[in-house]
Amino acid sequence: MTAILKATGLKKRFGGIEAVKDVNFEVHPGECVVLAGDNGAGKSTIIKMISGVYQPTEGTVTFDGEKLTGKSPEAVRRAGIETIYQDLALADNLDAGLNLYLGREKMTRVLGIPVLDRKSMRNAAVEVLKSLGIVVPDPTAPVRDMSGGQRQAIAIARAIHWQAKLVILDEPTAALGVPEQREVMALIERMKKKGVAIILISHNLPDIFAAADRIIVLARGVIGGERRPSETSDEEIVRLMMGATS
Amino acid sequence: MTAILKATGLKKRFGGIEAVKDVNFEVHPGECVVLAGDNGAGKSTIIKMISGVYQPTEGTVTFDGEKLTGKSPEAVRRAGIETIYQDLALADNLDAGLNLYLGREKMTRVLGIPVLDRKSMRNAAVEVLKSLGIVVPDPTAPVRDMSGGQRQAIAIARAIHWQAKLVILDEPTAALGVPEQREVMALIERMKKKGVAIILISHNLPDIFAAADRIIVLARGVIGGERRPSETSDEEIVRLMMGATS
Amino acid sequence: MKSLLNAWSWLFLVLILGFFEIYARIETGQTFLFRIYNIQSISVAASQILLLSLGLTLVVVAGHIDLSIAFSTGLAAVVMALVIRIIGPESGWLVVILAMAAGLLSAVLVGLVNGWLVAQLNVPSFIGTLGTFGIARGVALIVAGGATVSIRSEEARSFGNGEILGIPVPVLLALVLAAACHFLLTYTKFGVHTYALGANRASVERAGVDVKKHLVMLFVISAITAGVGGLVYTGRFSAGAANAGEPILLYAVAAVFIGGASLTGGQGTVIGTVIGAFIIAVIQFGLVFSGLPPYWQFVAVGLVIIVAVLVDQSRDKLTGSLS
Amino acid sequence: MKSLLNAWSWLFLVLILGFFEIYARIETGQTFLFRIYNIQSISVAASQILLLSLGLTLVVVAGHIDLSIAFSTGLAAVVMALVIRIIGPESGWLVVILAMAAGLLSAVLVGLVNGWLVAQLNVPSFIGTLGTFGIARGVALIVAGGATVSIRSEEARSFGNGEILGIPVPVLLALVLAAACHFLLTYTKFGVHTYALGANRASVERAGVDVKKHLVMLFVISAITAGVGGLVYTGRFSAGAANAGEPILLYAVAAVFIGGASLTGGQGTVIGTVIGAFIIAVIQFGLVFSGLPPYWQFVAVGLVIIVAVLVDQSRDKLTGSLS
Amino acid sequence: QEPAKKDFTITLVPGLTTDAFYITMNRGAQAAAEALGITVDFQGAEEFDPVLQTPVLDAVIARGPDAILIAPTDATQMIEPLRRANEAGIPVVTVDTFIDDGKYQDGSGDGDFPVSSISSDNVLGGRMAARAMAEDMGGKGKVYISNVRPGISTTDQREAGFKAEMSEKFPEIEVLDTQYNENDASLAASQFQAVLARNPDIAGVFGANLFSAIGAGNGVAGADKADDVTVIAFDAPPSIVDNIKSGVVDAAIAQHPAEIGYYGVMTAYAVLTGQSVPTAIGTGFTVIDADNVDDEAIAKFIYSE
Ligand SMILES: Nc1ncnc2c1ncn2[C@@H]1O[C@H](COP(=O)(O)OP(=O)(O)OP(=O)(O)O)[C@@H](O)[C@H]1O
Ligand SMILES: Nc1ncnc2c1ncn2[C@@H]1O[C@H](COP(=O)(O)OP(=O)(O)OP(=O)(O)O)[C@@H](O)[C@H]1O
Ligand SMILES: [Mg+2]
Ligand SMILES: [Mg+2]
To answer: Which residues are CB-contacts of A202 (< 8 A; sequence separation ≥ 6)?
Structure first.
């Protein structure tokens, strides 16, 4: 099977800081690659270079045979990549339904005029969240008023609700309750079965081992090592995170 | 030993939602009480009522024999309670040092005039973060430019840097790397030894069991049960979270 | 919640209307509110403010500001008057419509420049539109030769002063545009994206919306409603003045904020702005009507603006504790 | 980074000074910059703008705005003139100092009301200070009886027009206040909390800072520097006018934003504002000096304001890609 | 200064640059300049305000014209700034408005240094407006003044003259409170309508400047009261003249700005060439109304646009 995503020679500087230096990896359809690494290792920066939020200082990303580098987040999303960012990026003043559908709003017709279908978006949001184990007490409330985990769940729902070929999840379970964490892990399993490629960023070792087909460990902007979960151990991964060379 | 913190009959409404309903508990010096519970159970709301950010709709909080209810966050902090909030509440445009010391800035004298001692605050911040296992590449950069975990670490440092009698931590390890998570757990252990009381909110079962002297499980705004870690199991806690009555 | 907010602004408007009504009955024995004449006068004054603040509302909801409307209005007024003068008013409605199109186009140009500055060059909107404020002002004055351009066109006059079914044309126009802006902000994707943009630019950007194009459109809409304000001005006064909009700028901005918008963006409604504009027009009319000495009127307008917002505040407290 | 930002504003100021210098040498054979008269004139004009924008800078950094400065200035000017007129100018410096104290006090009152509205009653600052704008205006006019209050006091005159070591007193005052505000914003807890407040109110609140008190102080500081502007006005022109500050409000706000502040708060420096005020004063003086026709000056000022910010933008790009 | 020099440069600083009155004054000044073969520049601020006029004046002084014609924006407040011109050796002629008491070169007062004042007395203009109004109204009724904003010396003087004339000569005319409109014609219209709602017997409005007058006129027309309410305008730009023709405005008090500009340049030239000049020249007013608006003789008093 050929790789669906290929990152070659990725590099990113911020002012004087080289956050990412020469990173290369591939992801195959139906495969879950975990990006692990210490805080500030460059994980979020890498996925932002894939999703079009940052332009790499050097290097290229190809997806499905096409070059992604230089494209806008919009174009990347249209190409079939959905991303949940660590900072969620919700519109705090809108309700869960509108956040879920932001950019792809459902419309209906009233007297022949196309208008937003707030209600059906709201209902769909309640449904999707329920499938993640989350109950939103008041679906008309702006997401500003929601708990940390409820907000996290909306961001996840936003990514999985669309039929993407690659889903990127940056610490998706960070704020989730235990039952919800289990839901998300199950969800990743289901997506893999459907052939969706997944890049997961996580600091939770049990989750990493449960979900990963391959673990890529970053340390200070470079790949410190790559392991299959069956061939490694918690301690080795932590050693790699802390900068031990493999 | 008498309780240092006593919450009695706490209740909080937001508009039509009753987020917390009649919650009672105590915390003793040197004890770590874990508040566990599903997303939206009301954990953050409870600690905000303790720290003065929210005023309870009903109920009282007493600390060290004194009534806290109705006091400002400032007064609560002066009384000896430090809090790390889930939403961090950092000033994104300031550097790590200023964030660490916000409200208690270090001063120095230049020509007899008291001025901010930015440098020494910055150095102190680098030190404290190092003790948590975090290296900040550019300590003069605003925290806006830092990674999720680096920001989290600053919020933790802000609470533990001061000699408090009670430290409240709302999901402190959520964004932290594995080594840093371990540092924080060790830190909680050290604080307990010094007689500091701790309220910890966490969704990580291993952490909960490792740190807790008592686990209080919340479900939909009420206390579903209270357990000592030695007397319970993962599965029981999860059942309680999901609303099973004990 | 949104409908509740509007209800409270309405309430305040009703309160001041009630105040003036009682005052008028006691002092002069007349009615204040139930005279078509008074209602028409107030509505026309409100519509002149409203035309500047409608598009502005959208810009403010998106977290920006547009100061250039002060002179987009003036530019449109001057260009319309000049075209009528140059072609001559004999050609009737044709020339008036042509002139209005030209005036509107000149305003749209200002809006395009604003959009380009803010979206493409990342100039903060306060500074960018302050710059185009100066440019539009200079251009309007140069085009007009510094003074007002008076015209004699019966058609233009009837456009500015006529009535349809007893409703003055400027009021009708303002209400139609208000309805359009309300529809845009509440029932379309464009509106949702505008709110999201005001709350968190990243949210719309990552949702794949072309934020730059969106910003340009917002500033063009703002320029269009302000430009229509200029056309109405030229029609009403049979003269295009470069500074037609400038004295209204502050009131237009105030209407938007009284209507519930906030400097930080993400908040505000067209209905709120309409009510805000009417509150201002009612105060201005009512204070003169009640015979308050002129300097006291300044004080009273200031007080009422503050109280208008306080009423809005107490709503939050009341609903917070009641519901 | 902060120092770099300032370096770029400086650069732009130097650029326009250089432009006018070359222009003046070619066109008139005179020097533009190296004449004490020109420097003094520009500095005095800049200082009048600056006095309104210094305190405003702090307010804007904290994420608010203060429109009432337009009439805090006027109120202070009128009150100072009135006190001198009532007591009589014979008592020399004593009465002038008393009058200045009274004028300043009246401005401080406006600041206290602003602070109370914004901090205690949660009124958005744009609306709250627009309200006190009207109130201060009305009060100033009522106190002054509508007219300007002219005085004949040699001491007041020398306060407004005198020089110390060749530096005009208004310039000296503005620079001293600028230094004080810069110190406050950069070297004190108060300053850090102001920045933090602008970025995230919760951060300072939870850090245990009394945010309400802080806000009141900010608005009082803003009223004080604007009030000093009014005292300088009365001294310079031997007359207190209620309108003293209104025509420069927009320039004062522009100076703050050209200096790098942003509507959303958390950004801006006093040095930036000083440069902003000088950029405005140099353009105004330079354009008249260069003989550009008046309406073209509006266009030129608009362009320069935009370019000033674009230069600032390109800095970000350059440093971003270079370092 | 050698008297041989002929190509003088004179700068005309108006009260504000965006007003037909001053634009017309500039036309007159340019006509004189052409006749004399000298240059006249036009430089001013955007509003009638001393804070804005002072920096412009400072820059004009730096440019060093041979003489300055200026319409000072305040009688007291512009003394200090103009003193600097005098100290730089530039002769000052005040046009339209004046500084101090308007009596120059008599050794009294702070503002004694300008060489000449060429003014149309705004107080007198206000009095003429009152007379025209009273005549049209038959000497009794209620009137009010629609003005820009308090604190502008020219419009304040027109208001003062109007009120003084009414109280001295026409005791049966009641002058109501002045309404300020911020130069917003729309507000001026709404204010008229509010005054009318309160005083259904209102019989006259004096619009103290262009926007006050066209706004009030629009308010009157909107109320269908053109026949019952007398509208008197100050200044006579074409838009006012059009309004006189259409009957919305009853009469306009036209100053003679072109004359002022012309005499101003002539006076300055005389000073520069060493001739003696009168310290005060008054120019008159013309009342334009429906009866004379189409006269050839009147056309020259209509301001240019
Ligand atoms: N916009 C920026 N400007 C400057 N430096 C940045 C910026 N974004 C990230 N950095 C720096 O780049 C490095 C990598 O950051 P990144 O967010 O990719 O880390 P991460 O691996 O996602 O960490 P975490 O697990 O804590 O989220 C960090 O040192 C961070 O401070
Ligand atoms: N300001 C608010 N206004 C309205 N509702 C609120 C507000 N804050 C919280 N809520 C609601 O109250 C409930 C409890 O929220 P809280 O933040 O306390 O949950 P939590 O237990 O901390 O959850 P998590 O683990 O996801 O952080 C949630 O349903 C939330 O939507
Ligand atoms: Mg990250
Ligand atoms: Mg929480």
So the answer is: A34, A36, A171, A172, A173, A208, A211
